[in-house]
Amino acid sequence: MPVQLLHDAVAEAVRRFPERTAVAQSSGDGATLSYQALWEQSERLAAWLQAQGAGAGERVGFWMRKRTEAVVAMLAILRAGAIYVPLDPTAPTARITRLAADCGLRLLLGEEGLLLAARRELAALPSLRCLIAAPRLSPGPAEAPEAAATADPQLPLYGWEEVIGNGLRLAPARRLGEDVAYVLYTSGSTGTPKGVMLSHRHALNFIGWAAQEFALSAEDRVASHAPFHFDLSIFDVFATLSSGARLELLDRLWAPFPAAVLNWIHDRRISVWYSVPSALVQMLPVIAQRPGWRAEHWRVLLFAGEVFPSQALRQWRRLLPQARLANLYGPTETNVCTWYELPASAEAVPEPLPIGQACPGFELRIGDEEGEPLGSGEPGFLWARGEILRGYWGDAERTRAVCRQRRDAGNSPQVWYNTGDLVRGDEHGELQFLGRRDDLVKCRGYRISLLEVQQTLGAAPGVEHAAVLLAGSGSEAYLHAFVAGAVTPAQLRGFCAQRLPVYMVPQRIEVHSSLPLTSTGKVDRRILEREWLHLNAAGEAA
Questions:
Q1: Element (H or E) spanning 465, and its range?
Q2: Which residues make beta-bridge pairs with 196?
Q3: R_g of the chain computed on alpha carbons
Q4: Shortest CA distance to 198 belongs to which of 1, 417, 523?
């Protein structure tokens, strides 16, 4: 039977490897599910969801930490014919209710503590019919105390075991490859979250390529580091489960403890890893304290989402000489649309690191703001065409703002998506990432790429993370750098002065033990802009 829907790819692995472990969690009791058990539980849950009205095109949310029930929920929602909407388990109730209202959630599966604490606010949503509560997990290493529970009989709450134990039959869901499979909410430039709609065909194109390119097999143990509301999780969950491999769920509560994560990688014999660079940078000081540290079982290391500091990247290249390392690039709207594999030698790793060439299924061009192609070597916006953007949920205006219909050589209209990222092609045919539109700033008459300054700081010895912001305005504007690492501002100024024009050397450099990170593990520039710069400005005024 041809694979047309995302869960069809998993069904094939269930047929081939029914008794193999499909999912294992790090939190709670370390529960595991075989492929057969995963499939059976998802079928029973899917049948119950259908009975509650979660049919074709309905949105069903799940609000859980990394646990086997979350993977069951994802598959069940898809098998019911609905669209899954993953929600951040660390987000405040106000944000969750806002997103639930925006996409008109029909049902919400979540952890018992989260649902009870938010039940009154959720009951005010007109589209939401009921809640399904997964049992509580035992606390992780840094779990916050639970909020006081409230109850509201207007919104029924069913227990997980009650729902999974139903005797209902799953009806075939009539869905097509171009139908939406999931909605991922990302921060919008206007401050309003945008719900990116992705199709089954889009996801299948990506996981099919990734599983084949990196030779995933039933012998692999793949780390699930990214939260489920982040697009990196599509590889983690579906490339893994379509290959018969074992998905190892790493609870995000472990993330602040790199020593514990390294122990987990060793104990679970992780062979494939995919994360933002920040997670890998945090492990290096711990590895430095473990002479002779090795991970022979680690054969693939993938990273995406932010620029990898070059010194740290070369260290990882030396630490894993046997592994394939690759930089995967793409906004949520495309998932991954380009990739670049690092050379085997750390000394041969180029700086800056390219984002590479198009993945299969994508056509790319460098164009102006309207999508008109630019000449060879000219910097411009990266436009992509392929199995990509279905649009933003309930926001046709925002969709039209980033999509343009262009005609190809055969005069056939094609939709192209503007990633908003500035790139340039190099002499080797590789794409170089130059930054976002708003990464280019005017400071004292000079046009400056904040990304270039940040990359230079990231290349300095001892630097773990760096972020550069434009502070002040007009003739008072200046570059303000925030750095985490074992280094002094004077050392960084000297390092930058040898590599950048004087007007690009940050006027202020602050060194901290760490920088704030988002729930997806990237440096949180909004906190730096909103709070840290504000504190500095207040201190100067005083």
A1: strand 463-471
A2: 184, 392
A3: 24
A4: 417
Task: For residue 379, give the H/E element and its range.
Answer: none
Amino acid at 94: A
| 138 vs 141: CA distance, rounded Å | 10
Give the Cα separation of 107 and 76 in Å (integer): 12
CATH 1.10.357.20 matches 362-434 = no
Beta bridge partners of 466: 483
| Rounded Cα distance, 441 and 506, in Å | 13
Residue 531 and residue 539: Cα distance in Å, rounded?
12
- pLDDT for 407-458, tens place per residue? 666 556 688 999 989 999 988 889 999 887 767 777 876 678 788 888 889 8
Report the candidate in 310, 366, 304 with the shortest Cα–Cα distance to residue 331. Answer: 304
C-alpha span between 22 and 236 (Å, rounded): 12
**197 vs 195: CA distance, rounded Å:** 6
State which H helix or E strand residue 222 sits in.
strand 221-224
Residues 6+ apart with CB under 8 A from 499: 456, 459
- Residue 289's CB is within 10 A of a number of other CB atoms, namely 8
Structure tokens at 26: 């790090």
Which amino acid would we find at residue 86? P
Domain covering 6-275 assigned CATH 3.40.50.12280 in the classification:
no
Judged by phi (left if over 0) then psi (alpha if -120 to 50, else beta), residue 244 lies in left
Q: What is the pLDDT of residues 57-105, one digit of tens each?
A: 999 999 999 999 999 999 999 999 999 999 999 888 888 998 999 999 9
Torsion from C-alpha of 491, 497, 498, 500, nearest 10 degrees: 130
| Element at 115 (helix H, strand E) | helix 112-123
CA 454 to mean position of chain CA atoms: 21
Give this prediction's pTM. 0.85
The residue type found at 239 is A
Collapse the DSSP code of 91 into the 3-class scheme (helix H, G, I; strand E, B; otherwise coil) and give the result.
coil
Query: Hey, how many other C-beta atoms are within 10 angstroms of the C-beta on 92?
Result: 11
Would you kindly state where each structural domain of the chain is located, as residue ranges?
A: 6-275, 362-434, 444-541
Q: How far is CA 33 from CA 20, 37, 66, 118, in A?
A: 9, 6, 14, 29
- The domain 444-541: what is its CATH number? 3.30.300.30
Distance separating alpha carbons of residues 220 and 190, to the nearest angstrom: 41
Q: 65 near 137, Cβ under 8 Å?
A: yes
